[in-house]
Structures are given as structure tokens and as C-alpha cells.
Amino acid sequence: MKKVSCVDLFCGAGGLTHGLVLEGVPVVAGIDIDPACKFPYETNNQAKFIEKSVSDFTSSELNELYADSDVRILAGCAPCQPFSSYARRYEHGGKDGKWGLLYEFSRLAEETCPDLITMENVPSVAKHEVFNDFVDTLKRIGYHVWYSVIDCTYYGVPQTRKRMVLLASLHGEIKLTESTCIQPITVREAIRNLPAIKAGESDIGDKLHVTSTLSVKNLQRIKASKPGGTWRDWPEHLVADCHRTDRGKTYSSVYGRMEWDKPAPTMTTQCYGFGNGRFGHPEQDRAISLREAAILQSFPQDYVFVPKEQKVSLRILGRMIGNAVPVKLGQAIARSINAHLSDVNLA
After folding, report:
1. What's 31's domain CATH number?
2. Stretch 32-38: mean pLDDT
3. Is the pTM of this model over 0.90?
4. Structure confidence at residue 85 (pLDDT)
5. Catalytic: 80?
6. Domain check: are 113 and 157 in the same one?
7. What's the CATH number where 284 sits?
């Protein structure tokens, strides 16, 4: 048996790592600048968390983590906000700030030449110079590169999330395995068994099953909201001022309820707020809880995000959960890696 080791750049709370580990791909460490991610990453994955900017991470440090591995894998999801359609301001040239982090990924790949590389990001990343430079670098140094935009619902993720997935290998052609989910998993199938709670409350048995509070007016608004409907269903006195403007009229999903029998919308870092998107519970008069958001990101229900004694922060955990690579997508990537290693006799 070959000794395989993976390092996860921009690892966050461990969505990609957990998917890899569940499919038997050993992950030795994750690198991230957010100290809040250390506890969930290490607790759920038995891998080392290194609090460091990828910009400051050296190839020698990376090689030390791989140690004597026969097969080395470099994985990661550079922060996607600069490429997102929600971004309000783009940095020209693409080599400064967060855009430059994909160049740092490229630097580490070029300096260490791992056997396999995988990268995940928003679909619009492919429109930017930094992504083209990343692909060109990999091809120039000998990698076979495959990438495509995939619909996560077909890989068992119960939300309508489309992502750019890239796989590259020094040993031959590689691609993502075919989808295994014939019918998308619905919100009902994903979260129906969680205990009912009210806005601002938490479940006594799971403190992550906690929701944000609602103002008197927002409570009236969610009571007037229909699953899959819009704010246009409300009585006139509940319509927000922002929805009366020409621009505001186009945001029909804000203050929306999810539908039981469809996948959830894309989870974002603000997914715990009723007014931040279609994040209202399909039936209960509240926004979805952090636990529900995590499950919709395909984290296992027992995934631990904070120590028992630590208070839950909606903002911090919402950011962690919304930024995560869905675990089921990580599993699909891992299955693709395993199949490739078998095909090229490196398993």
C-alpha cells in the first residue's frame, strides 16, 4: 500500500477535509488564518490545524507535512468572495489582496509538485485572469488538468449550489466521478427531524440548533410569508422601504421561506438571518438555525463546532458554515482521487 497524505489549504472548519477523510483519503493538516476554525477542524478530523496565512506558508513547511508520503495531495478552496457575483468591488490586476491567494496556491503547487491537486471555488472564478494563470501554471509544469462547474445537488448536497471544481494529476487524465444522486435531497429530508424551536431560542440538546431573534415587524413578515414565495405576498404595511425602490424590487428572495420539497438555496455566511436571503424555515416562524445550515451544507448532524463551555456566536459560526466546502462535495472529490490512484497503480 502506498502512503498517501493530503494538505488542505484555506481549510476553514473542515468541510473539504471531512469529505476526504470519510472516503479514506488521509489529511495530515489544514492551513487557515481564522483561529475560530481550529477547534472544529481538529476535533472532527484528527488532523493538525495550522493558523497561518497561505501567503506566509513555505514550500519547505509543506514538504515537512508530507514527510515520507508516496503520494502527496494538495487541496484547497481559496476565499471566493472576490469572484462572487455578490462582490461589490473588484481589485484590478487580480494579484493583490484575496485575489492573490490563488496565486499563492499556484506558488506552492509549483514549488512542491504534489502528485494531485484539487481546488474548489465559485463558478465565476473561471472568468478571471488569476484562474487562467493557475491552470496555465499547472499545465506548464506537467499536470493533466480537468475542471468544470458542477451542481452540488447531484452529489447529495441538499442545496442549489454550483461550484467550480478542478482536479489535476502528474500521472494521467483525471476528472470528477459521475454524480450518484438521482433525485436531489430536499429540505424536508435534510432537516425535518430537528426539534421545533422559536426565533431566538436554542435546543437544549444541541446548542448549535439556535436561531437569531426577530423584531416584531420581522415576526409579522415571516408569518405572512409563504414557502417559496416573496415579500410581494405581504400586506402593504409590511413591505420594507428597500423593496419599494427599483433596485430593491429585483431582490425577490430576501425575507423568503424555503420550500420543504425542494433543495435549499445556496448557504452563505449570512444564512442565519431571515432578511439576508431565502433563509426562513419552511414552516416555523424563524430563520433556519446554525445546525440546519450546517446540515444543508452536508455536515453530519454530530459535527462539533464549539467546545461545550463556549458561547455560540451566530456571526462567527455563520461565516464558518457558509464558507465551507460541502462535505458531500468533498466526498465526491475523494472518490475521484481514489479511482484515479487505482487507475494509475498508486493506490
Report:
1. 3.40.50.150
2. 96
3. yes
4. 44
5. yes
6. yes
7. 3.90.120.10
